[in-house]
Amino acid sequence: MKTSLKTSIRKSTQHLLPDKRPLIEEGKYDIYPAHKLDNYQISQGFESLAEALKSHKTIIIDGYTGVFFNDFRDNLDEFFRKNNIRVAWKNTIDFLKTSAQIEDMISPFLGGNDPLFGKRTTLELDDFFDIRSLQNLAADPDSDINLIIGPGAALSG
Q1: With a cut of 50, which residues of the chain have pLDDT below it?
Q2: What digits encode the pLDDT tens for the residues 64-86?
Q3: How many Å apart are CA 47 and CA 69, to the nearest integer?
Q4: Cα distance from N-terminal residue to C-terminal residue, the chain
Q5: Residues near 94 by Cβ (< 8 Å), separated by ≥ 6?
Q6: CA separation for the pair 138, 157 (Å, rounded)
């Protein structure tokens, strides 16, 4: 008895991606969105990223809390140091409100002694930062690159 690829490797009932993308009517949802990339638009590794970034004076690297930003910084910084590029690093963690302030902000949403009765927060990302300090960050004129990294970096202005 012949075993099909679908049953021998895949442990899912999800449909396979078709070999050819079906035509989509104008205005209809495209379940298989795709965009053509020109050659050399995808790179690999921190060195190629740092190479692309080195010509910029100001760089903002934002992302989710789960990103290993310290590793990210260390790898980029290694390249910059090797190439004598002076970088003024700022980390968004330095602009977070204190843990006591954050606890006070979120406590109304936690449900008190019974977390079952907690509710969805109306807080925004910028509520967790000393937003004025973050937005008033000044560039270091003695650096080749000013780089702010971490969750909420795009709030820096």
Answers
A1: 1-2, 6
A2: 988 999 999 999 999 999 999 99
A3: 16
A4: 64
A5: none
A6: 10
